[in-house]
Amino acid sequence: MADTGVCYLVQWSRGPVNLLKVCQLSGNNAAPPAVEILDTRTKEQLCFLDKVEPHSTISDIKGLFHKSYPQWYPARQALKLHPKGNMLKDDEVLQNLPGGTTAKLYFRDLGPQLGWTMVFLSEYVGPLLIYLLFYFRVPYIYTPKYTFTSSPHPVVSLACACHSFHYIKRLVETIFVHRFSHGTMPLRAMVRNCAYYWGFAAWLAYYINHPLYTPPSYGETQVNYALLIFVLCEAGNFSIHCSLNSSLGEGPKCRRFPHPSKNPFTWLFYFVSCPNYTYEVGVWVSFSIMTQCVPVALFTLLGFVQMTIWAKGKHRAYTREFKDYPTLRMPILPFIP
Fold it and tell me: Considering the entire predicted model, what is its pTM?
């Protein structure tokens, strides 16, 4: 008689009667493994999955767990092999995990989640609109006599155009270009990110559009050179994002590290692993030079530190996954480890 592959999902309650929930999976393994899911903090058993197919993925396990606990949808779940270990990826296969015939997994609630498209739209719409409020000098920002007045310095209008273009470009990329490897972000992380972007947008816009703002020390020459760098870096950043999008479009079976193409802006791939961050830093460095404003320079510095951390993480991942990864490539700055 062939095995029917029935999986029994058992949820233990603290009452006198145990609550059993049964779900069926297709399969016909002779001795399918079992999965025990414990709470990360209390170590109490949340449920026991009996006769799970060996080729089931962590994503499948999350789906079964969700049937028993509807409030914890898969994106909210973090499953680990150890309470203090790393989260298991959704595509990891159960039979490849240590644990023998019974796998013990630890569950942690990641909290409410939001899709990445919504996250980026929230992060980028805010700075775009906030900056314009200061540029048009709406009431209650500066003294009443400056309400709805404009600055006599052309660089102020140019800075507004560049700032608006940058965030409009980000919004367009979010909708039409970017593909996200992780589907969601915790709500609390989005609130923190919005506070960062929105707060800095207000701070730098306040000074650049202030009635007492003075233009850069070297006048038009400084502004024009900064504008040239700004445009080139924006074009480079967009080119890299399009290149990364096309490489992801080949599908997971064709996974490979990014390569330069015929587009000259992608040639930076010869020297760094994350040229999109390199160009992004260049954008804000040029904007700092253009406006000669301390809050912009501080925002640039903090952004560079954060992007360096991200770039080093991606660089390490590339070198671990691909044995033929180019040794000349550095994380974010050419020739600088």
Answer: 0.78
